[in-house]
Amino acid sequence: MPNLPPHLSALLATDKELAPIKALNITTPPPGWIRAIRTALRMSQAELAALLSINQKSLHALEASEAKKTIRLDSLEKVADALDCDLVYALVPRDSLENHYRNRAYSVASTQLAGIANTMDLESQAVSIPQKKIDALAAELTERDLVRWTQI
After folding, report:
1. 103-125 pLDDT, tens per residue?
2. Which stretches within the chain are classed as H helix?
3. Could you give the CA distance from residue 35 to residue 59 in angstroms, rounded to a whole number?
4. pTM to 2 decimals?
5. Residue 73: left if φ>0, alpha if ψ -120 to 50, beta else—which one?
6. How far is CA 121 from CA 47, 125, 129, 152, in A?
7. Could you read off the pLDDT of 13-25 as tens digits, one per residue?
8. What single string gives the DSSP state of each residue in 3-42?
9. Is 34:6 a contact under the CB 8 Å cutoff?
10. Which of 46, 51, 124, 137 can pair with 109 through a Cys bridge, CB separation 3.0 to 4.6 Å?
């Protein structure tokens, strides 16, 4: 798509950067990565605790907090380092950012035009909003970077 506005080019660039991560389709093991990696290495809690210079009870607490999704990133990074792993942290959109942005534009356009139709109906001047009008407004909102996330 040549000559895209900068905000759309940025969306596409970010989508492109995220594509390899999204393609991995990684799910966290139920007990968490710490336990999964530790047990795959056939390492005991006591051994990993010693590498981290903490006691076994503290390591157990770290594994439990990871499983509950309450572990701090800095703690997870220290454990990853002790396991000779890299911590990879990313937010991976369920859909492309471009689609999310365009869908939001469509939602805003539909709501805005529905409000106009409602006002006209209240004045006994009912109008139907053609799909082309919604599509055109959504395209304009997208093109001019007027999509907002808190309105409606």
Report:
1. 999 999 998 888 765 565 555 66
2. 6-24, 33-40, 45-52, 56-67, 73-82, 97-122, 131-143
3. 10
4. 0.73
5. alpha
6. 73, 5, 12, 19
7. 999 999 999 999 8
8. T--HHHHHHHHHHHHHHHHHHH-----TT-HHHHHHHHTT
9. no
10. 137
